[in-house]
Design a protein that fits this description.
Number of helices: 3
Helix content: 10-25%
CATH topology: Serine Protease, Human Cytomegalovirus Protease, Chain A
Largest sheet: 8 strands, mixed
Strand content: 35-45%
Radius of gyration: 18 Å
Oligomer: single chain
GO molecular function, one term: peptidase activity
CATH architecture: Alpha-Beta Barrel
Protein name: Prohead serine protease domain-containing protein
Order of helices and strands: EEHEEEHEEEH
Keywords: Hydrolase, Protease, Viral release from host cell
Number of strands: 8
CATH class: Alpha Beta
Pfam family, one: Peptidase_S78
Length: about 180
């Protein structure tokens, strides 16, 4: 039983309000990571259902270190885009205080998953399509393997920007129709 996790260089800056509440995508479907792997839609469904049935949860770790839990994930779910997480860094824990300070300063801005591959197939580009994963943990990390796996500020709605963009398209189209 091998636990997998990967790292790569970050591309964006993390912003968190209140220093402790965080949310974001830990994994995005069909996006190739730095190792060439892609995660299929639904890859986490069975794992999340099993955890829920057993009354267990996905762990929040610091840099994938099982000896350093730093908080709790209050919500872990798949949506159309990927694996979305929302949780709290626990500042009563020494490493949690350090993590919150590093996140607030912008020194840490990545999310990364720790998982075991249950089903995968090789693809034509030398990577894998991961179709079923046993999710163990989501870590705050310096270098996530998937560059877009980032934490959003508390006030940000991960789907809100997409909806606003779609609304703008419809508004522009309606205006163009009115002008003839």
């Amino acid at each position: 039983m091998t636990l997998e996790h990967k790292f790569c260089a970050p591309e964006t800056v993390l912003q968190v309000t209140d220093g402790t509440e965080i949310s974001g995508y830990a994994s995005l479907f069909e996006q190739r990571d730095q190792g060439g792997d892609r995660v299929a839609k639904g890859a986490y469904a069975a794992s999340l259902a099993q955890l829920k049935a057993k009354g267990r949860s996905v762990k929040m770790l610091w840099q994938h270190d099982p000896a350093q839990p730093i908080g709790v994930w209050d919500e872990v779910r798949e949506d159309a885009r990927g694996l979305w997480v929302k949780g709290r860094i626990l500042t009563d824990v020494a490493k949690g205080r350090e993590a919150a300070a590093l996140v607030a300063a912008g020194a840490i801005d990545g999310l990364s998953i720790g998982y075991r591959t249950l089903r995968a197939t090789k693809d034509d580009k030398g990577g894998r399509l991961l179709s079923e994963l046993e999710l163990w943990e989501v870590s705050l990390v310096t270098f996530p393997m998937l560059p877009d796996a980032r934490v959003a500020a508390k006030a940000e709605d991960p789907g809100g920007a997409a909806l606003r963009d779609l609304a703008a398209v419809f508004t522009d189209a309606a205006a163009a129709l009115r002008q003839g």
